[in-house]
Amino acid sequence: MKRAVVLLSGGLDSTTTLALAIAEGFEAYSLSFDYGQRHKIEIDAARRVAKSLGAKEHRVAKIDNDIFGGSALTSDVDVPKARSEAEIIRGIPITYVPARNTVFLSHALAWAEVVGALDIFIGVNALDYSGYPDCRPEFVAAFEKLANLSTKTGVEGAHFKIHTPLIKMSKAEIVRKALELDVDLSLTHSCYDPLPDGRACSQCDSCQLRRKGFREAGVNDPIEYATS
Asked: What is the pLDDT at residue 227?
C-alpha cells in the first residue's frame, strides 16, 4: 500500500483531505501541530478525526510559539469578527501565521522521507478561503519543486507529489464530498476563537466560511455554535 503524509488540523478541509487520501488507497500518516495557537482545541479534534478515519499513525509536532508571533491566532491580538464576505476575501488578514504552511509542509516532507512516503496531502483551498498566500496553487507548485531539489529521495530520482484535492472546490463542494465519504463532521473543529466550553464563536472568518459552506450545501452543520 502506498503511504502518504496528510496535514491534519482537525477542521473541515483537512479532515476531508484525509478521507480522500484514504479513499484513494493511501496508508495515511496524519500530522498536526501544536504551535501555541489560541484554538488549540483543534488538536483534540485532529486526534478524534485520525482515529475515526483510520489513519495508520497520527503525530502532533510541537513548534515554539516564539517563531509564530504577530498573528491573531498566536498572540494577544483580537480575532476579526463579523466581517462581510467582501472583507474576508480582501487582503491578508491578521489571522495569517507567518510562513505557516511552508513550515508545516517542511515537517511533512521530513516525516515522508522517514516513513517512505512520496505523497503529501494538504487541504488548502483557493476559492472560499481567507486570502492566505500559502494556500495558492503557485505556492504548492513551488514547494513541490523545492521538495524534489532538497531531499535525498528527490536527488536519487524518486518524485514527491504535493496533493491539493480541495484547491478548486467551494466550501459547499467540500461539505458534500465529506458527506459522500461518510465523514463524521461533528468531530471537526474550525473556529479561530472558540469559547472556553469549546463551542465555535460563529463570527470569525473561519466560522463564517464554514457556515456558508453548509448553508449552500443545504445540510445542517453538526457542531455547536455560541450564537445562531
From this structure: 75
Q: What confidence tens digit (pLDDT) does each residue in 148-169 have?
A: 999 999 999 999 999 999 999 9
Q: Within 10 A of 208 (CB to CB), how many other CB atoms are there?
A: 20
Domain ranges of the chain: 3-217
CA-based nearest residue to 98, from 143, 138, 134 = 134
Q: What is the pLDDT of residue 137?
A: 92
Which amino acid type is present at position 228? Answer: S
Given a contact cutoff of 8 angstroms between Cβ atoms, the answer to whether 130 and 101 are in contact is no
User: For residues 177 and 185, is the Cβ–Cβ distance under 8 A?
Assistant: no
For the chain, which residues score pLDDT lower than 50? none
The answer to whether the beta carbons of residues 41 and 189 sit under 8 Å apart is yes
**CATH code for the domain defined by 3-217:** 3.40.50.620
Cell of 17: 483531505
CA distance 68 to 78: 16
